[in-house]
Amino acid sequence: MNLELFLVQLLNGVSYGLLLFMLAAGLTLIFSMMGVLNFAHTSFYMIGAYFAYQLSVWIGFWAALLVAPLLVGVVGAAVEQWGLRRVHKWGHVPELLFTFGLSYIVFELVQVIWGRAPVPYQVPSELDRPVAWLQAAGITFPQYRMFMMAVAILMLGALWLLLKRTRIGLVIQAALTHPEMVEALGHNVPRVFMLVFGAGCALAGLAGVIGGNAFVTEPGMAGSVGAIVFVVIVFGGLGSVAGAFIASLLLGLVDAFGKTSSASLAGLLSSAGVELAPQTFGYPVLSMTVAQVAPVLPYLMLVLILIFRPRGLMGTRES
Amino acid sequence: MMRTARALALAVAAVAACGTVVAQSKGGAPSAQTVKIAYLDPLSGPFAAVGQNILKHFQVAAEMASTKQLAGAGIRFEIIPFDSKGSPQEALTLLRAIADQGIHYVVQGQGSHVAIPLSEAIARNNERNPKQSIVFLNYAAIDPDLTNSKCNFWHFAFDANTEMKMEALTDYMKGKPEIKTVYLLNQNYSHGQQTARFARELLARKRPDAKIVGEDFVPLGQVRDFSPYIAKIRASGADTVITGNWGTDLVLFVRAARDAGLTANFYTYYAGVIGTPTAMGASGADRVRMVSYWHPNIENNPAEPIYVDFKKRFNEEWYVLASQTSVTMLAEAIKRAGSSDPLKVAHTMSGMKMNGLMGEIEMRATDHQLQQPLYISTFTKAGGPVKFDAEKTGFGFRTEKAIPTYVASTPTSCNMQRPAKP
User: Fold this and answer.
1) What's this model's pTM, rounded to 2 decimal places?
2) What domains appear along chain A, each with residue ranges and CATH number?
3) ipTM score of the complex?
4) Cα separation, B165 vs B272, whole angstroms
């Protein structure tokens, strides 16, 4: 692999990983707060993309970038207030089923409103070009992906400041572990839950706003990222934002380099001095390249981490 | 209680008897009657957009065949939709219901992974229940196995198969000496693998000087980020990419290519499918070529009025010529056979020649593969020869080369078992 290809894949991997992180951050935050694995999380990602498309038609992309995540946050808060909270008293399983059902409802609703085919949500023309200084170095990398990375990093910084350096972050962290005590101190814990749920959804919505035009905005978009986001949060450790960050970067890099690697077990063995021929037992499996198995790698990582470190990279609870 | 049960049983038997009488009278001379055609394709789930759109194609075709009385005076056609959800299992369950409802004609096309088991199940059904025989009009599943190793008498293919399309594509590439290095990227399932296989075989025959510099298979409908593949293609130095990808797998691929400044040309099968032009937009302009049996900007285009009407009526693209071809051919066969009996119709259709919408067509008797001309076109800015743009994108298809029927025709290994003529 030459240096240019390596750099491009590095950038591809990091930018994809950061997008995954935006999705996973909200999900893991909601989980750590409320103990609910929100199956509808990627539906909020999809709503974000569709809102952004609609708003960009009406008021332009840059305004949509601000407004769409806020709207998604409001929708999320409403879902928590009038849906999830009522189900909450029956325990976690009904909550899980509630979000599961919700994801199907959103899927159908989106199709009713915007149709079943993709919508023409495009990257704004200001960002629709290669990065100039990289171009000078002989690397073509889209400006929009740089922008994606910048947004994700800004969001990470803001989230960290909010959780670690503000009063409301203090209350959220306390409500995480000692909700009764926080309530006794006069804080409105249900409202904190609602805010966290809304904020988590807004983060997913933001990911939708910048992911919807980078990829494609269509009703299947929620389902297509659903599995990978769960891998990210389980791998990083349920409830850990820092873990989710590391896991999403790791998965992004595995995705980018895995898809392009032509290494195989057979190659590894032959460099170790073991000669293989097509007649060798299991040759079709041994000669499979990493690129061929790349789509499975994230799930392989999921299985392995569950076996060897069930709480994930940085998770705190065993369950 | 017993009494009611017995009365009920009698009533049911009576109704059933009436049913048979009606059915028998229908099997005879085709006078005033309705020929039902089951449409068995996804109407919900991830592939619903395409399924719903093509259902309208067939409804329009059936309306036309009814009003123009293509099968003879008084014979009407009706499309009955069945939602296969794109799953082979679901399709086979529904096939039972279709047979039980006395429907003798099934159209299906989305996915060879459904078409192959369906074709086998239909052949089995027809052997066991000759009275409930079903004719399979396949409008778009293009695995060549369907008309080769797995061919059967009851299956009729109205789209050109993967091999024929690749024959046409490589015929076009033969005249393009600037193509030197080719990359194959396909979906990892029957159709994608066949595309890659025939691309290798036919390029080796027609352009032995062109090198295949890389090959990848992607999981069907799972990849969001194609940029790593694009970086790999770029590093391989390929000037041409051949892909059988469709839906989001094609859109995301083309978009990622433009974003990363990959200048290679894309040779595709499915750039015209609903939603694809919208999602490609300018990123596909002048770099995406398509092989197909039709596009709206073919010169002297007899199907143009249908396209224009459809667009006006549904605000959606019309592009599945096979919906017209299959229904008109069925109607013509009913007329020639003088009956809508499935066995008679199938025998008539086998080897039948007629004037199709776009010229002479033939349902080859040896394998039931329709022989028709194909076109290579480029996705480009509308205007001039590009009279119609696709999905209001400002971009449409322009013919690069018309491939006559005999070029796109490929030999078959089909050894068909034919039931005796009635």
Assistant:
1) 0.83
2) 3-308 (1.10.3470)
3) 0.83
4) 15
